[in-house]
Amino acid sequence: LMGNLVRSGALGVVSGLRTVRVQPESLHDDVDGTWILIPHDLAIAREVFGAFPTPEAAVGVHAVIDGEYRFESMFGILRFSDNTWHALDMSTAATSYTRTVEVFGSEGTARLADGWDDHLQITRPDGTIERREASSVELPLLAELREFVGYLEGGPAPRSTGADGLIVVRTIEELRRLAGARAS
C-alpha cells in the first residue's frame, strides 16, 4: 500500500522513509539483531521504492555477549539513487516492542503504526488525517513464504532473488562497518 501511495504521487514529492524495529530482547543466541531485524526494513524499502538504498552513516551500541561483541542497537541512514533517504532504527535492548514504518512526502506522511495494523494513517500538511485500509492483512513474511512455495510448485518466480539477498547481506555488513563493528 505504501509503495502504491509513493508511485501514484498521493504523498507528493517523497523525501524519505523511516523504519523502527525495536524490542526488549534478542530471541537469537547465535547472532545480533542486525542480521535478524534489518533485513525486514531493507525489504520494506525495496517494496516501497523499488530499489535498495546504500548505507551512508550508522552508529551502534555494542554489548559483549558470550565473549562476542554484538550490536544491541543501530541507527542507520541510507540513500537511494534519487537522494531519498531511509532512516532505520533497530534494537534488541529497547524498553518496548515497536514496529513502525513512515513515508514522508510534501503532501503528507503515511504511517503504519504496527506490523499488525490493517490500515495506514496519512497525515496531511493541514493536519487532516486519512485512514487507508490495507487490501490484505496477511503478514508480509507469510505472504513472501507463500509466494516462494507457489514458485516451487510451478508458479511465477518470487519478487526477491538470491541477488537481492546478497545486496541485503552487503548492506548490513556496510552498516555494521560504519557503526564500528568490533571483532571479538
Task: Give a short summary of the structure.
By secondary structure, the chain is an alpha+beta fold. The protein has helices at 2-8, 33-49, 140-152, 162-178, and strands spanning 14-22, 54-65, 68-79, 85-91, 98-105, 108-112, 119-123, 129-133.
Strand content: 25-35%
Which stretches are poorly predicted, pLDDT < 50 over at least 5 residues?
A: none
Task: Tell me the span between the first and last alpha carbons.
Answer: 42 Å
Q: Give the neighbour order of strands across the main sheet.
A: 2-3-4-1-5-6-7-8
Description:
With 184 residues, the protein is of the alpha+beta class. The chain is 29% helix and 34% strand. It has helices at 2-8, 33-49, 140-152, 162-178, and strands at 14-22, 54-65, 68-79, 85-91, 98-105, 108-112, 119-123, 129-133. The protein has an 8-stranded mixed sheet with strand order 2-3-4-1-5-6-7-8. A hairpin with a 2-residue loop joins strand 2 and strand 3 (68-79). Helix 2 (33-49) packs across helix 4 (162-178). The longest helix is centred in the first third of the chain and has 17 residues, at 33-49. It is globular. The N and C termini lie far apart (42 Å). The mean pLDDT is 92.
Which features would summarize this protein structure in a list?
184 residues, alpha+beta, 8-stranded mixed β-sheet, 4 helices
SSE arrangement:
Elements: H1 2-8, E1 14-22, H2 33-49, E2 54-65, E3 68-79, E4 85-91, E5 98-105, E6 108-112, E7 119-123, E8 129-133, H3 140-152, H4 162-178
Parallel strand pairs: 1-4
Antiparallel strand pairs: 1-5, 2-3, 3-4, 5-6, 6-7, 7-8
Helix pairs in contact: 2-4
